[in-house]
Amino acid sequence: MTAGARQDNRLTELLRTNTETVIEKWVGAVAALLRGRATQAELTIDFRELFQLLLPLAGQDGRDISGPAFGEVRSFLQEYSRSRVRGGFTPSETASSVFSLKREAFALVENGDDPNLFRQALAFSALLDALGLWTFEAFSRAREEIIQEQAEQLLELTTPVVKIWEGVLAVPLVGTLDSARTQVVMEKLLEMLVETGSEHAIIDITGVFAVDTQVAQHLLKTVVAARLMGAECIVSGIRPQIAQTIVALGIEFGDIVTKASLADALRHVLRNEGVDALSREVV
Q1: Cα three-residue angle 214-220-223, rounded to 5 degrees
Q2: Distance CA 102, CA 129 (A)
Q3: Strand 200-208 to strand 257-259: parallel, antiparallel, or no bridges (unpaired)?
Q4: Residue 256 burial by Cβ neighbours in a 10 Å radius (0-12, 13-18, 19+)
Q5: Dihedrals phi, psi of 79, to nearest 5 degrees
Q6: CA angle, 194 as apex, 191 and 196 as ends, to 5°?
Q7: Distance from the CA of 50 to the CA of which of 110, 173, 237, 247 falls in 20 to 30 A?
Q8: In which order are the strands placed within the sheet that holds 257-259?
Q9: Gap between the Cα atoms of 4 and 67, Å rounded
Q10: DSSP letters along 249-270, please?
Q11: What does the pLDDT profile of the chain (283 residues) look like in tens digits?
């Protein structure tokens, strides 16, 4: 290695030589900021890995961190941000984990008289600024993704498809029925029809707050999807108020069977199958 190359890499060498001291102080500063919500042992593991990824980049100014040279550090910070979202940390606290390294880096060069080393430290500071802002953005993206995942999981939980009799499935709906939820209902219902070989499906809307034209259209789509799978589909839970609204809106359910309650719908299915719901015997 030439003298010029050693000069160019002096900040990297200085950081590498003082790795343990820098990491210890860096961890201490961030641990104090987080007030015990992350242990020093946990922070040390994360920061040691990040520090090793940053060493080859020391001296760069971070004007463009989208290039391949920054790929590994971006991947690390993305996963780090995602873990911090799940841990209940704020975006500022997460980004500060990166920004806090600047102080320790400057502490290594503040007493020196090498202008080139100081320029490298300034460039490294700019790099950490860029990576800190990128971490802030990565945190926001991860939080949105996790919120979306949780919303989808909640949608799954609030849209059960249950087998209530041999060959009979029921979908008890509660709350608001929109396009996204209708899609989940259809997918889950069709999957269960195939899995169980059921020939009857009851969509119960007793818990649906209101039925308007859009909700009716969503119901009709679900019924049509079930019929295409060869299943008879009944809509139950038509309360008096809902019935009046449907009439007032001029909504036509066509030849779709509707019943006032889930019990009425099941009774209708069993009667058509020749089964007495009380004796459970073929009549």
Answers
A1: 150
A2: 9
A3: unpaired
A4: middle
A5: -65, -40
A6: 105
A7: 110
A8: 162-165, 168-175, 200-208, 232-236, 257-259
A9: 26
A10: HT---TT-EEESSHHHHHHHHH
A11: 333 344 457 889 999 999 999 999 999 999 999 988 889 999 999 999 999 999 998 878 788 899 899 999 999 999 999 999 989 999 999 999 999 999 999 998 877 778 888 889 999 999 999 999 999 999 999 999 988 887 766 666 567 888 888 899 998 888 777 777 777 888 888 889 999 999 999 999 888 877 778 878 888 888 888 888 889 999 998 888 778 877 887 877 788 888 989 999 999 999 888 776 544 443 3
For residue 278, the 8-state DSSP code is T
Amino acid at 184: V
Q: H or E segment at 2?
A: none
269's CB contacts (< 8 A; 6+ apart) are: 165, 168, 200, 202, 232, 234
Residue-wise DSSP of 62-94: -S-TTSGGGHHHHHHHHHHHHHHHHTT--HHHH
* 108, 15 contact by CB (below 8 A): yes
Query: What six digits make up the tokens of 178?
Result: 């929109």
H or E element in which residue 34 lies: helix 19-34
| Strands (DSSP E) found in the chain | 162-165, 168-175, 200-208, 232-236, 257-259
Cβ-contact 55, 92 below 8 angstroms: no
User: Is residue 182 within 8 Å of 203, Cβ to Cβ?
Assistant: no
**What are 272's two structure tokens?**
């058509």
Q: What whole-number distance in Å separates Cα of residue 262 and Cα of residue 113?
A: 84
CB distance 195 to 228 below 8 Å: no
Concatenated DSSP letters of 218-243: HHHHHHHHHHHTT-EEEEE---HHHH
